[in-house]
Write a structure and sequence with these properties.
Layout: E1 17-22, E2 25-27, E3 34-36, E4 38-42, E5 45-50, E6 58-63, E7 68-71, E8 73-78, H1 87-95, E9 99-104, H2 107-125, E10 131-136, H3 155-161, E11 167-173, H4 176-180, H5 184-196, E12 199-202, H6 209-216, E13 222-223, H7 229-237, E14 241-244, H8 251-258, E15 266-268, H9 275-281, H10 284-293, H11 298-304, H12 307-312, E16 329-333, E17 340-346, E18 349-353, E19 356-357, E20 401-409, E21 418-427, E22 430-431, E23 438-443, E24 451-457, E25 464-468, E26 477-481, H13 484-496, E27 500-505, E28 509-515, H14 527-544, H15 551-556, E29 566-568, E30 573-575, E31 580-582
Parallel strand pairs: 1-6, 2-7, 8-9, 9-10, 10-11, 11-12, 13-14, 14-15, 20-24
Antiparallel strand pairs: 1-4, 2-3, 4-5, 7-16, 16-17, 17-18, 18-19, 20-21, 21-22, 23-24, 23-26, 25-26, 25-27, 27-28, 29-30, 30-31
Length: 586
Amino acid sequence: MTRNDTPGTAGTPEDEHDLRISGGTVVSAFTGEEFAADVLMRGETISGVVPPGTPAAARAHLDATGLLVAPGFVDAHMHIESSFLTPRTFAAVTLARGTTTVLADPHEIVNVAGAEAMRWMIEEGRGTAQTQLWGVPSCVPAVRGLEHSGADLGADDIAAMLRWPGVVALGEVMDYRAVVGGEPRMRGVVGVAREHGALLDGHCPNLSGAELSAYMAQGIDSDHTKNRTEVVLEKARLGMLMMLQEKCLLPEVVEALLALPQLPPLCLVTDDLAADHIVRAGHLDHIGRVAVRAGLPPAAALRAMTWTPAQRLRLYDRGVVAPGKRADLVLLRGALGDFDPAVVLAGGRVVARNGAPEPESQGGAGSAAGRPAADGPLTGTVRAASPGPEDFRWLVDLPDGEHTFRAMRTNPRDTYTEAAEIVLPVAGGEVRWEGRAALVRVHNRYGRQGTVFAPLLGPDLAPGAVATTYAHDSHNLLTIGTSPAAMAAATAQVVADGGGVAVVHGDGATAARLPLPVGGVMSPAAADEVAAGAREVRSALEEWGWRHLNPFMSVSTLTLAVSPSLKITDMSLVDVARRDPVTATV
């Protein structure tokens, strides 16, 4: 930025603008048009969008020649914990990619440590240049009676938290079966949110027909999950706001939406992106590029990441480059559909250039100021002993001989699992699974009793194991492996780290690890350090044979008891559609 010495800009100091962006092409999120204009700012507000060269005094000048001036990106559904970063560090790295506003649902950390965890998240994010709004998690635990988490929130707890500053929504109502079935607890949770006037975010994969109507009748009016194309259209037809994350942005879905007489309102959202992905490929800017590659026109993609999500969040002061609106702006290189941020402004202040935060805008990200105290509510949450190979013996009360066991089958595309079967021998009360299948073990990490085993089919795995406390949504201790020795080694590493992810190749050598001591789901380290660790874990998983578009989510959602179709918790295998525990044997 430089001082403005443009002729003909005389005026009294009170008439002077703080900043003038000139030489750029403004993109209208209303009409999709691109037009030459200068943008003026006073404080945090756009004070003018005027023809180039219009006389107007400004204290500073920003040359945007060759750049597009677009509204800052608004992410209406995401989870900061999925980045493995704390809120302050997350803000710095995602602001650099153009995300100026987020609605964060902290249901990962709140499942670990309850209301205190959410209070810490809000305070940690306060004071960053990014607008961070919050949703109170609706499902803590995700499915009561089928799993144990570190906290349990009822309607009264949620009603109190909805009154906290910055809290505007009820987080995604994942236990959609409980809502449809009229279960009193979930009806009470949704009821207090409606009384408070909060936004109600949904999560209801492939719910349709009468059940969809019953769900929406409770006031839940958005969905970000992956649906069949016909269900996407059904939900949009009924006025449910479709929030499309990367796995939802299939060409056939976009084609069907564009074929409608009128394109419905859409939001592009990130949901769950790890630090290494953000640093390498981007944040909401990446989702915009994915949408364009899938066939969504660039102007429609921009609207779905600016104006529509701003309206969804009732932030009527942003989402368009216009006088009177908040000066959250992204200056883009190249064509609109490239979504390539050159300069990012938040509240009229430059906070990032060329994908890197301005030093003065980081607010201590990754510094000791952003780290929780060693004895704070979010550390020391993994209350599990370091295991040995004997802890991975699958003991059953069955006679010797072959038995048919239920198994989980993964796929390389999404987080759905299929219920499968496998015949395994039992000898001396122990299932002899080695060499026949991989094994999944979930062990309660909160000091409760609870250990459950199940065979895993799908990936072609070499000898080794992965262990993690980042396991949606109760974040118990999840281990997958091909031998007890490898599983014990990976799990012992995670316990020693106070939570995190560890991959072992062979029977005991740690190939990669990502310590996550903040609740077992986040790291207090700087973004580059966390990204490097996440990248190493991702590479080690792929080398092991875990092939997936998003390996972290594929592993960590094996325990998500609201996501179809067969999942595992610290209490049992769960038939998600029936919302029932099922036995290990068929």
